[in-house]
Design a protein that fits this description.
It is a single chain. The chain is mainly alpha-helical. The protein has a two-stranded antiparallel sheet. The chain contains 4 helices and 2 strands; from the N terminus they run βααααβ. The chain is elongated, with a radius of gyration of 16 Å.
Length: 106
């Protein structure tokens, strides 16, 4: 039987969904991400749930590495600036497709 490959394009979460996700994520990670979840949802508009989580984890990881003198707002601003400079904005055209199952070989 030939392997089956399914490709699905998923829409990014809405502003409300992203805000709720970031609120729950902030609570799980210690309660603070440097900015209000709604502000982050706006700044990261178009990002997938995985990208939102990756961003939050990166901020928390950097904050821990900078203890005891960490500044979450500065870390978030730096990370947002890095994304903007590298062109990592998540527009519909740049959002990857998810593939499930083994790769189809030519």
């Amino acid at each position: 039987m030939a392997p089956i490959q399914i490709r699905a394009e998923l829409d990014a979460p809405s502003r409300t969904q992203a805000t709720r996700f970031l609120e729950r994520l902030a609570a799980r990670l210690g309660g603070d991400l440097g900015f209000a979840p709604r502000t982050l949802a706006d700044k990261l508009a178009g990002a997938s749930y995985a990208e939102l989580e990756e961003f939050a984890l990166d901020v928390r990881r950097r904050a821990i590495l900078e203890l005891p003198d960490n500044n979450l707002r500065r870390i978030v601003q730096e990370r947002l600036g890095t994304q903007a400079r590298s062109g990592n904005g998540m527009t519909a055209e740049r959002r990857p497709l998810l593939a499930f199952g083994p790769p189809v070989v030519g």
